[in-house]
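Appendix B. Extra example for self-study. Work through it before the problem class; the solution is given directly after the inputs so you can check yourself.
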Amino acid sequence: MRHIAIVGAGLIGRSWAIVFARAGCAVALYDGVDGQAARARTIIANELSELQAQGMVTNAADLLARIRVSTSLADALAGVEFVQECTPEILETKRAIFAELDRLATQDAILASSTSGIVASRFTEQLAGRARCLVAHPVNPPHLVPLVELAGAPWTSAQMLERAKALYIEVGQVPIIVRAEIDGFILNRLQAALLTEAFRLVGRGYVSPEDLDKTVKDGLGLRWAFMGPFETIELNAPAGIPDYCARYGLTLANLSGAPAETYGGQNLAAVMAQWPALRDTQAVAAKMLWRDRQLAALRRHKHEQAAKGETA
Ligand code: NAD
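Solution. Structure tokens for the complete assembly:
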């Protein structure tokens, strides 16, 4: 059984506890505020019951039994191989807690921060064990949204990143690697591009906020539930991504106020050098059929939810 410590038992810490307990790990839950970890465990108990009612877990009581409350950081860290830090998004807090984690955790334990936007080099530089520190940024709530962005500092060891990646896969998450430190990592940069444009469009009177939301949830977002933007555009031009870029790249770059070569040159070369392009027109046709089946299933799911009165 793997032993994991969650440090900071707020919104994100609680959800991580479910992720690890659900995967069979023993979880120690610690919070700097007296009584907070115990309160968090009670909330987790309710969340597990809700998940059981949804058919997402079958053994809520067993899962809860794997989560114990620690009243000291040293107790929480005793014998753990992995620490998921979930304290508030304040640089000084991250610096202080990582210094403590590095001092108290066993030498080969991985120290992963849930930070939404502080790159690891800003709070790990001075640490003796800085090679084992990294960012593991989840999406709220991680027990239902599996993506986790792994971002090391320049001194994070490749082996630690690989171990972290393997562990997240093992517990059912979907890790991606951010190859160099960048503010906002990947998800929030994508989100920022979309939200910035959404605010501009509403602010300048082109569309209502409700209609803008429909554009995503009844338009773009339907495909995005099972395909990424590169998979999407590969199916939107007969000869795949380069063809799409040749047809629409300049228009899209202009719409975004981006340089004309954004969809060509080095960028396109980098995409294609790493992209497992569909082989031929047969493969494209098969993937289109798959896409349409996924869309149909998703539409059915949305209709069923609406019919049950499950509206927000
Ligand atoms: P939160 O305020 O709900 O929880 C933080 C918890 O940390 C609190 O219970 C607090 O008592 C505890 N804490 C404070 N100082 C501590 C210390 N020194 N030692 C131990 N515990 C301490 O915050 P949250 O939303 O759970 O966010 C936690 C981290 O996760 C942040 O870095 C945040 O950026 C990141 N994150 C949040 C979201 C989100 O949507 N909320 C999404 C992804 C990542």
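Self-check: Residues 3-178 form a domain with the Rossmann fold fold (CATH 3.40.50.720). If your reasoning did not lead you there, revisit section 3.
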